[in-house]
Recover the amino acids of this structure.
């Protein structure tokens, strides 16, 4: 039967009017409830939205409709979660408990209704949005690239308190459920169907009809497979112990208490957030008073600020041309194609393009997980030896060798070929824009787009303005960075910009500590004990010791090169890429010996140059303010997020001393 003929569109009913919700009843007696939050491009569950939903739900309970379908009226997703703007006083236990009680009671009421309920999800379904969907009897995911499901509360230092901890493992089993909650990791529509999070994954054209048919048929909900039933029941402690071992390898309890709280709440209290006493580490009252929570919420707001810098500018690229198919250029091109842009990738010979295309294919396979969509992404990435794409591109990005003369000559040619409205950008990490653009007729068009390696994983892009850069071109560059789902950080054109400027004195300090006799393992342990994702010696080996030596000389020319670093470079021991540096590398991992004792004095000694340089960068106006510096260094260097940023951390140290 033709799908269009079986689809009965909802017809407007006579229900009461609400600010954020629309109700319609179709000819089958099914109610279609649409959330379209007023004054916002995104649906979030504010107090007002929840109050209206409860009023609507009470009316449904009284009249007992044939079925209820909940969907979104927004183009940008289902529900993004709770309204983070209402988290201002969440560090007060009574406020946090009241906020949790509000959603917990309401979603329990939804889960208990006698009539069938269904969440029709297209786009992101996060946090409280997923908890609402879990409280429904059925869930349908629309098979669309934007559809994602996640419980990311752990990233804010809190836990899913509106029923997520209790319900998710019962729907998908402990293996997948704990993984989602302890990491905040999202799953797409097809993966959601595979793990049983949704009952169906359907194309957009049949989503309404699929929802209607599922409610009318009323099939029993999916039952967990036997092994997952056992892990959710009598073998719960076994599942919890296994998850704890994995968790302890990734996060320290004293740094990140939230994942441990989620695991204990599930194991000991069956996911009931009101069962633990307030002093219990699994309680929300305990979590919200922990410094990590306040700092992670601060980091969330910093991230939102970076995102806002690229909004409302009115520039949208369709075609990107990248010159240079090395690791950086090739990966920049791949990321742009991944985000739906047509990309031409230029280099001097086919053998230079081949590795970049191979890496791109692997990236698409991992990220997209759909053979046809991955093929479409590959079709958007076009090898271009002749450089014909320059003339059609809206953005031209240079990512060739760090040689001033080469870049000067290249941009003189690019400017002559590019269309007048195209952004002309360099990915330089050490050369000044004024020097690079010296041979251009109009150097005000030149901006810096400094990506970080590995490009697919690193979210930050420094958007660099030289002394002669027209602010309008810099604004368009901010918009482009957001278009490819990266975080733009405006910086001034100075040696190392922000991130490398701050990182290099810290790494040189680490090298000198090794010269003084400390084991590389001890230096790395000090950084990791502080909360860095990777120690500076391991980072140097990963980046390449030859690169560290060159950049160190460029950024800190007055400093004598560290002795051990120079010896290793002269011996051709360049780190991971040569198989040996400060460490020997085996199967992509460093082989480390035992580390020595680490105390607070050693940690502060290691970190002092990092903190001092961050402070100087703000004083010199390289970024606009301390908050932007904190954001850039968290997302660009991995500075321990639970500490809220280096300058925020330095202020807290000063307050402690006073």
């Amino acid at each position: 039967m033709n799908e269009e003929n079986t689809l009965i569109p909802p017809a407007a009913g006579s229900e009461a009017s609400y600010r954020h919700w629309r109700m319609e009843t179709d000819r089958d007696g099914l109610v279609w409830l649409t959330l379209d939050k007023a004054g916002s491009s995104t649906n979030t569950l504010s107090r007002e939205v929840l109050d209206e939903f409860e009023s609507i739900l009470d009316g449904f309970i009284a009249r007992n409709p044939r079925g209820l379908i909940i969907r979104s009226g927004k183009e940008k997703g289902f529900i993004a979660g709770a309204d983070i703007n209402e988290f201002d006083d969440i560090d007060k236990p009574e406020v946090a408990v009241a906020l949790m009680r509000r959603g917990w009671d309401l979603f329990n009421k939804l889960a208990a209704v006698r009539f069938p309920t269904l969440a029709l999800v297209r786009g992101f379904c996060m946090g409280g949005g997923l908890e609402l969907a879990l409280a429904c009897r059925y869930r349908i995911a629309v098979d669309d690239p934007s559809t994602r499901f996640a419980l990311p509360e752990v990233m804010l230092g809190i836990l899913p308190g509106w029923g997520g901890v209790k319900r998710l493992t019962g729907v998908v089993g402990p293996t997948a459920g704990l993984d989602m909650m302890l990491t905040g990791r999202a799953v797409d529509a097809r993966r959601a169907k595979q793990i049983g999070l949704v009952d169906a994954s359907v194309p957009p054209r049949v989503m309404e009809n699929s929802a209607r048919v599922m409610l009318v048929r009323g099939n029993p909900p999916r039952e967990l497979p036997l092994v997952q039933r056992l892990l959710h029941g009598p073998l719960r402690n076994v599942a919890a112990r296994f998850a704890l071992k994995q968790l302890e390898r990734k996060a320290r309890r004293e740094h990140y208490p939230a994942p441990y709280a989620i695991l204990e709440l599930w194991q000991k209290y069956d996911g009931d957030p009101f069962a633990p006493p307030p002093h219990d580490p699994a309680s929300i009252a305990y979590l919200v008073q922990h410094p990590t929570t306040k700092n992670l919420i601060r980091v969330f707001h910093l991230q939102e600020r970076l995102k806002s810098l690229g909004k409302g500018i009115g520039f949208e690229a369709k075609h990107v041309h990248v010159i240079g198919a090395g690791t950086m250029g090739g990966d920049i091109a791949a990321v742009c194609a991944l985000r739906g842009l047509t990309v031409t990738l230029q280099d001097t010979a086919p053998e230079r393009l081949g590795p970049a295309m191979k890496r791109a294919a692997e990236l698409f396979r991992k990220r997209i997980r759909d053979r046809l969509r991955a093929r479409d992404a590959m079709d958007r990435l076009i090898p271009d030896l002749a450089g014909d794409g320059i003339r059609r591109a809206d953005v031209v990005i240079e990512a060739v060798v760090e040689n001033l003369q080469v870049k000067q000559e290249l941009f003189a040619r690019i400017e002559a070929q590019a269309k007048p409205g195209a952004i002309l950008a360099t990915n330089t990490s050490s050369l000044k824009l004024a020097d690079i653009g010296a041979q251009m007729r109009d150097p005000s068009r030149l901006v810096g787009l400094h990506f970080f390696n590995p490009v697919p994983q690193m979210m930050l892009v420094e958007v660099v303005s030289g002394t002669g850069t027209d602010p309008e071109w810099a604004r368009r560059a901010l918009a482009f960075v957001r278009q490819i789902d990266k975080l733009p950080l405006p910086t001034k054109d100075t040696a190392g910009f922000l991130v490398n400027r701050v990182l290099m004195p810290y790494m040189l300090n680490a090298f000198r500590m090794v010269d003084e006799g400390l084991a590389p393992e001890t230096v790395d342990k000090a950084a990791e004990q502080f909360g860095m994702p990777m120690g500076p010696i391991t980072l140097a080996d990963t980046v390449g010791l030859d690169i560290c030596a060159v950049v160190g000389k460029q950024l800190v020319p007055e400093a004598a090169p560290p002795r051990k670093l120079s010896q290793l470079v002269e011996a051709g021991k360049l780190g991971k890429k040569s198989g040996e540096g400060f460490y020997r590398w085996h199967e992509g991992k460093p082989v480390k010996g035992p580390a020595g004792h680490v105390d607070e004095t050693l940690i502060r000694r290691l970190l002092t140059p990092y903190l001092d340089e961050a402070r100087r960068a703000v004083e010199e106006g390289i970024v606009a303010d301390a908050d932007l510096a904190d954001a850039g260094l968290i997302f660009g260097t991995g500075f321990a997020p639970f500490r809220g940023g280096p300058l925020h951390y330095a202020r807290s140290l000063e307050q402690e001393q006073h």
